[in-house]
Write a structure and sequence with these properties.
The protein is an alpha/beta fold and 235 residues long. The protein contains 8 helices and 7 strands; from the N terminus they run ααβαβαββαβαααββ.
Length: 235
């Protein structure tokens, strides 16, 4: 049995600089399937709902994702917004140019701007987004980097931000380990799937990260399957 008392700092293969885009693309496609089947996209749209409920917008809601990968999360949100008659525009930011190019090619129908950049270097010159979010992104970072990330998200989102990420738990670890062993054809998913759970956080650790960031008003909700939805709405 793996000991998950403390989070792992072992680097995921996906964070390497020598991964071919063919391998990255297969990884993104399988993760999209997992997100769809296990409710990951539903958690993301719940974050959108919490950020915009009871608010009136005079123009389309601008929603920005950092670490957007191939754009699957923004596509799921666009589908949700159409269903709810919510006009929306999108910004996808990813440090890998192959990812943003793939997202633009994969979802040309989205009213989206795809930006290849480290999110920290992005300057929203004309207008800041209403909502900023990340999904399965935070566990790639150390705690001090996350402190800075939370501060950046709060400073750059006019309405609020949210996080959809993994709960470090043995059942989640072994479930994804066996699921990917049986069903996955991606060596990245097989290696990084369980490792990403081991790199995830528990609730008390999130509380400490937010305390370090100087943010006191936020909510943390546990969601199936072993995710946290963390929402911070601006006053």
């Amino acid at each position: 049995m793996i000991n998950l008392t403390n989070r792992s700092y072992t680097k995921e293969l996906l964070d390497g600089d020598d991964i071919s885009f063919a391998d990255i693309r297969q990884n993104m496609q399988e993760l999209n399937t997992i997100n769809s089947l296990l409710g990951g996209h539903a958690i993301t749209t719940s974050g959108i709902y919490e950020c915009i409920s009871n608010k009136v917008f005079n123009q389309p809601v601008c929603i920005c994702e950092i670490g957007c990968g191939g754009g699957d999360n923004l596509k799921a949100i666009a589908k949700y917004c159409r269903k709810k008659n919510i006009p929306a525009t999108f910004i996808g930011i990813d440090i890998k140019e192959d990812c943003t190019a793939f997202a633009k090619h994969q979802y040309p129908e989205l009213d989206a701007v795809w930006m290849t950049s480290d999110y920290r270097l992005v300057n929203f010159e004309k207008q800041k987004p209403d909502i900023i979010f990340s999904s399965l992104f935070c566990h790639h970072f150390r705690e001090d980097a996350l402190t800075n990330m939370l501060q950046w998200m709060k400073a750059n989102a006019t309405q609020g931000f949210f996080i959809n990420d993994l709960h470090r738990h043995p059942l989640a670890y072994y479930s994804i380990k066996w699921m990917t062993k049986i069903c996955s054809r991606s060596y990245l998913v097989k290696n990084d799937g369980p490792l990403s759970v081991a790199r995830g956080f528990i609730k008390s650790e999130w509380n400490e990260i937010f305390r370090s960031a100087g943010i006191s008003r936020f909510s943390i909700k546990w969601k199936w399957a072993f995710r946290y939805l963390i929402v911070c709405k601006n006053d």
